[in-house]
Amino acid sequence: MTARSRRFDLICFDWDGTLFDSTALIARCIQAACADIGVPVPTQEQASYVIGLGLHDALQHVVPGLPPARYPELGNRYRHHYIARQDDLVLFDGTLAMLTALKTRNHWLAVATGKSRRDAERTLMIGDTTHDLQMAANAGCASVAVSFGAHEPAAFAALGPLHIAHSTAELDAWLAAHA
Length: 179
Hints:
Layout: E1 10-13, H1 23-37, H2 44-49, H3 55-62, H4 71-85, H5 95-104, E2 108-111, E3 124-127, H6 130-139, E4 142-146, E5 164-165, H7 168-178
Parallel strand pairs: 1-2, 3-4, 4-5
């Protein structure tokens, strides 16, 4: 009998409601923030529905009639309540064991989000192909190319990498100076 070959190398997880049991907490924080600033408090169902959106989009959906200048205040109140209760977050039962088993089977694990891309600006993709650099551009990430891989370096310029390294030592030096 032969071992089943695996289909996926990289497994990406959503965070809220997939790894962490955070749905009720997030909904309560949205409700508390609305109460704090004196706007109608959404139901649990309404507050839960927006989970997965970026905070600004979620709050606009929950309180659509709020003057735009007040969304930062509502967001700050949400953050206040969330930070005060973040230690209440727990992994779903079996999550740690599942992640450990996946890692033991040599899967790469990542957390991906559909939320705001601001953090993508703080992400650097390093790759040896135009596909890698295009992926970085599509995700809103900066990129660095290495010329010692699969694609010719001349093709990289059109994709705007911050640097093209011609050796691992050069890449290491560039990262030490710029990352």
